[in-house]
């Protein structure tokens, strides 16, 4: 939890220097039939509830926290089963023009009571005309991750597709459709993960999300 405290403290100092900036606070909550992250289930195929808060100012700086319930099966090689993922992040986002932008930041993935699972990343994303490219550099022993994707408006929602590679772990692709209904967003996805460990560790399947 010390990582999150450092994030909040450093960003608070940054915000205090932005005397004329408008600061806004927003929240989110979601339910998914399975918590899929980079192609891999984080909840052994069971539903997961998540939620978070974001603090941002009009200069582009932002700070956020996000949490979700997670589990691991009885055969997991890491001691303990886990029950909560708590992430803290901060960064800066901006735009080159109305069709292109960027996002640079830091994120800490933490698991209370299971410190051995904690890891951190620095990330950068560029997006242009519906295409985005993301690179997340793992800090210390954490693995690097890269992803490319595309999103386009389709009917009442948007269609998206992405492909990612996680060093020493595997690759994944995701096909999805997001449909906004008032303040709610319904998501329908299919994910496929090819593990570097072999076919026995591959994962694939569809899942559904609803968020507010």
User: What structural category arises from helix and sheet content?
Assistant: mainly beta
Look at the structure and give the CATH class: Mainly Beta
Q: Spans of 5+ residues with little confidence (pLDDT < 50)? A: 74-80
How many helical elements? 1
Your description of this structure?
The protein is mostly beta strands and 212 residues long. It has one helix at 2-16; strands at residues 23-32, 36-37, 40-41, 48-57, 61-68, 85-97, 100-110, 119-128, 131-138, 145-154, 157-166, 170-181, 184-195, 203-211. Helix content is 7%, strand content 60%.
Give structural attributes.
globular; mainly beta; two-stranded antiparallel ribbon; Porin; 212 residues; twelve-stranded antiparallel barrel; 60% strand
Give a topology summary.
Layout: H1 2-16, E1 23-32, E2 36-37, E3 40-41, E4 48-57, E5 61-68, E6 85-97, E7 100-110, E8 119-128, E9 131-138, E10 145-154, E11 157-166, E12 170-181, E13 184-195, E14 203-211
Antiparallel strand pairs: 1-4, 1-14, 2-3, 4-5, 5-6, 6-7, 7-8, 8-9, 9-10, 10-11, 11-12, 12-13, 13-14
In brief:
With 212 residues, the chain is mainly beta. Helix content is 7%, strand content 60%.
């Amino acid at each position: 939890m010390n990582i999150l405290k450092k994030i909040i403290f450093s960003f608070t100092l940054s915000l205090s220097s932005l005397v004329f900036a408008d600061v806004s606070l927003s929240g989110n909550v979601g339910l998914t039939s399975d918590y899929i992250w980079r192609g891999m289930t984080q909840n052994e195929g069971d539903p997961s509830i998540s939620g978070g808060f974001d603090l941002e100012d009009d200069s582009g700086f932002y700070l956020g926290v996000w949490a979700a319930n997670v589990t691991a099966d009885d055969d997991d090689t890491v001691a303990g089963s886990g029950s909560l993922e708590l992430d803290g992040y901060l960064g800066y986002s901006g735009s080159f023009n109305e069709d292109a932008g960027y996002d640079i930041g830091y994120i800490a993935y933490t698991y209370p009571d299971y410190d051995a699972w904690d890891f951190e990343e620095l990330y950068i994303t560029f997006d242009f005309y519906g295409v985005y490219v993301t690179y997340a550099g793992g800090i210390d022993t954490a693995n690097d991750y890269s992803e490319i994707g595309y999103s386009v408006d389709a009917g009442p929602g948007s269609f998206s597709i992405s492909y990612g590679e996680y060093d020493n772990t595997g690759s994944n692709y995701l096909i999805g459709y997001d449909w906004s209904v008032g303040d709610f967003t319904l998501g329908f996805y299919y994910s496929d993960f090819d593990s570097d460990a072999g076919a026995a560790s591959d994962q694939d399947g569809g899942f559904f999300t609803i968020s507010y």
